[in-house]
Amino acid sequence: RRAFTALDGVSLEVRRGECFGVIGRNGSGKSTTLGLMAGVYRPTSGAVRVAGRVSPLLELGAGFHPDLSGEENLLLNGVLLGLTRLQVLAKRDAIVDFSELGEFIRRPLRTYSSGMVARLGFSVVVHLDPEILLIDEVLAVGDEAFQAKCMRKMESFRSSGTTMVFVSHNLAAVESICDRVALLEGGRLVTAGPPKEAVAAYLTLRNESSRVGSGARRQGA
Question: DSSP labels for 121-190?
């Protein structure tokens, strides 16, 4: 069986205090890049160096226990992310208010919808004073009003100098919040630079692929 190379010769540097975007089509290596930064994966070659405490927003609700209440999961998740119980308790009210879960915070997680779980996961991480925040397609959480609140929170992190790596298919959000953007395709780095330029390169790549696919379908018809 032939080995699959998720990333091939990709070299990136994220500067302290910047918001760095990563875009590309499905399967281009975006989530693998974040997984390496978060320590979820180990590279088979090359090296990953991270200076600071990483708070990953990769899979919201990962590590939550369905039989524990939202509040118990809040405390557990905060401790797993490196804070003490007292530090998490000091943030408890702010986390619950942001999540908009109300009385549901005392109910078992198994009674939550997937959207409620995601809102709790997002609220926990962004209230734990992250030094390096890794964000993978998590801003589509809840309704439009909650998504807007999430974006405002990300903007506040940017203003306060939190280092962020932001993976998203929402190109408008990428252009709005990122200082620089990398475009990946097939596990390789296509370009890295100003957001508008990287987004334009991505749209060109996507349109070219669509034309090739349409031509192949016409020939096969």
Answer: HHHHHHTS--SEEEEES----SSHHHHHHHHHHHHHHHHHT-EEEEE-S-HHHHHHH-SEEEEEETTEEE
